[in-house]
Amino acid sequence: MTVLSSALDPAGPEYRAHREAMLARLADLDAEHAKALAGGGEKYAARHRGRGKLLARERVELLLDPDAPFLELSPLAGWGSEYTVGASLVTGIGVVAGVECLITANDPTVRGGATNPWGLKKALRAHDIAFANRLPCVSLVESGGADLPSQKEIFIPGGAVFRDLTRLSAAGIPTVAVVFGNSTAGGAYVPGMSDHVIMVKERAKVFLGGPPLVRMATGEESDDESLGGAAMHARVSGLADHFAVDELDALRQARRIVARLNHRKAYPDPGPAEEPRHDPEELLGIVPEDLRTPFDPREVIARIVDASDFDEFKPLYGSSLTTGWASLHGYPVGILANARGVLFSEESQKAAQFIQLANQRDIPLLFLHNTTGYMVGREYERGGIVKHGAMMINAVSNSRVPHLSVLLGASYGAGHYGMCGRAYDPRFLFAWPSAKSAVMGPRQLAGVLSLVARQSAAAKGRPYDEDADAALRAMVERQIESESLPMFLSGRLHDDGVIDPRDTRTVLGLCLSAVHTAPYEGVRGGFGVFRM
Ligand code: COA
Questions:
Q1: Per-residue pLDDT tens for 364-373?
Q2: 145 C-alpha vs ligand 1 centroid, how far in Å?
Q3: Which of 163, 268, 363, 367 has the most crowded Cβ, counting Cβ within 10 A?
Q4: Which of 106, 148, 153, 214 to mutate to test the pocket of ligand 1 (most atoms within 8 A of CB)?
Q5: Probe ligand 1: pick from 47, 106, 143, 182, max atoms within 8 Å of CB?
Q6: Neighbouring C-beta atoms of residue 378, cutoff 10 Å
């Protein structure tokens, strides 16, 4: 074994300062997560309970195996928008009757569970995860359908929800819908497109048009129950396969359905793994508040991989990118971690080679981000930084082993792409509260804008207003800084969640377990043309 040593001094002032800053950010994060948990707030939760109904998260909890973890995804969806944090939908991965499933649950306390633009993005992301990892999907349905005031943004793309359900089914990935309440209009296609459907007595309402719409359209008088109640669908239309007497019965039946799916994982559980030799609690004190100060990612690796055991690849070459082999909760992983921020030609070529090796050996890759991007400047351009960066991006793009990304610190510019940013389809991408991601740093971006404006004024022969320039720079810096922060990015679904650094090993372990539900094989030679 090659156990990593640590140079971290938990008694030192630097560690303490980093830890304090991280704890403050975690407190802010907790406050935002609490908003997602509160959903529509006390008034709507009390009304919902008064109707004898369970809250969305209670439904999820009762569906899961007792004490099973639930890896909630995108809990901050909608953050910074006009919609409630969490976007009226709960999504995540949990174990139901011993089977890892992708679970979605409408939150009826938020605008009747209606789907807003961020909730739609969240639902589509959940389906992507189910597809890539072959996870059965269980939808806990109670929704007012489209959030009507924002229909222009959701109606057309929203059709993909129903398309996905039937494509999952076609791919042999089971889909189960449990209908607890309203599921009208487009929403009726959630049970309509699912393999297995359970409806709750006198609660489920599944119809293309409710009684008022039917009266408007045809003049026919009807009521909810005869038009789309559970009894009618179980006895007459056949849309319901299972009739549940109440919510608990519906969740019990859902567990029985999942137990009988005969859904097998592609790989066996690797069994218990040795914990890291270094304390994960210390992950709080590694990343400096000012991301311009470098930190050694081996300190992070030492606290997340099995037995802190890490065999480095090319440690003496391209040393601002650390690459090497480890296992995490028993699953083999290849790790690429930025060490000193900038990616040079050597680092890019080393990354491309390492990614090829992982593909030859069918080993998943973990990207730990802290990069300001690829090096600029005459010397580096002459040295071929564009083609070497392109080499790394080619390797990441065409690699076929599962990728996981965690943004620890900076993730700027094309460095975000080369390190398997969101657009490069990592199976999962999480951020630490210390992360920042943008096209470049706020100061650099404001400076570039100012230079461009100055040149433009000079070209037109106009005087340049220095005071206005300073004000503009300050404003742009503030704007870019706020748009680089993890809560902002998570709100827009650019990651799958912002996590406590201490949870990194657990979160990645849950992801790796989900990943190993689907078979995978590395690409053997199927890369684009590498520019040499
Ligand atoms: N879009 C936007 N807001 C909606 C909504 C929708 N589709 N459905 C409900 N809301 C809002 C309501 O206006 C209400 O807001 P308020 O409390 O600020 O006044 C809040 O959500 C709760 O709705 P309410 O009707 O009081 O809740 P309920 O639990 O008694 O009934 C529904 C929930 C979903 C059955 C009912 O609101 C409804 O029928 N909505 C319209 C459904 C529909 O036709 N959707 C179109 C499908 S494409």
A1: 999 999 999 9
A2: 9
A3: 367
A4: 148
A5: 182
A6: 7
Whether the CB-CB separation of 523 and 107 falls below 8 Å is answered with no
Ligand 1, residue 205: give the atom nearest the CA: 35
C-beta separation of 193 from 159 below 8 A: no
Please report, for residues 95, 103, 255, the alpha-carbon distance to residue 66 in angstroms, rounded to integers and kept in the order given: 9, 16, 12
Compute the average pLDDT of residues 148-176: 96
Q: Which CATH superfamily is domain 24-259 in?
A: 2-enoyl-CoA Hydratase; Chain A, domain 1 (3.90.226.10)
| pLDDT tens, position by position, 183-231 | 988 889 999 999 999 999 999 999 998 899 899 999 999 999 999 999 9
Give the separation between CA 72 and CA 497, rounded to whole angstroms.
Answer: 8
pLDDT band at 440 (very low <50, low <70, confident <90, very high): confident
Tens digit of each residue's pLDDT (9 = 90 or more) over 7-48: 999 999 999 999 999 999 999 999 999 999 999 999 999 999
Nearest to 406 by CA among 442, 373, 435: 435
Separation of CA 243 from chain center: 34
**What residue owns the CA closest to ligand 1's atom 16?**
111
CATH 3.90.226.10 positions along the chain are: 24-259, 280-439+485-515
- Cα–Cα–Cα angle for 7, 11, 17, nearest 5°? 95
Residue 187, burial from CB neighbour count under 10 angstroms (0-12, 13-18, 19+): buried
Q: What is the pTM of this model?
A: 0.95
Where does residue 370 rank: exposed (0-12), middle (13-18), buried (19+ CB within 10 A)? buried
Beta-carbon contacts of 419 under 8 Å, excluding residues fewer than 6 positions away, are 336, 338, 367, 369, 371, 396, 405, 411
- The Å distance, Cα 114 to ligand 1 centre, comes to 7
| Topology (CATH) of 280-439+485-515 | 2-enoyl-CoA Hydratase; Chain A, domain 1 (3.90.226)
Helix 385-398 with 345-361: angle, nearest 10 deg: 20
Alpha-carbon span 42 to 189, nearest angstrom: 31
The mean predicted confidence, pLDDT, of the chain is: 96
**Whole-angstrom distance, CA of residue 464 vs CA of residue 139:** 59
Atom of ligand 1 nearest to the CA of 48: 29
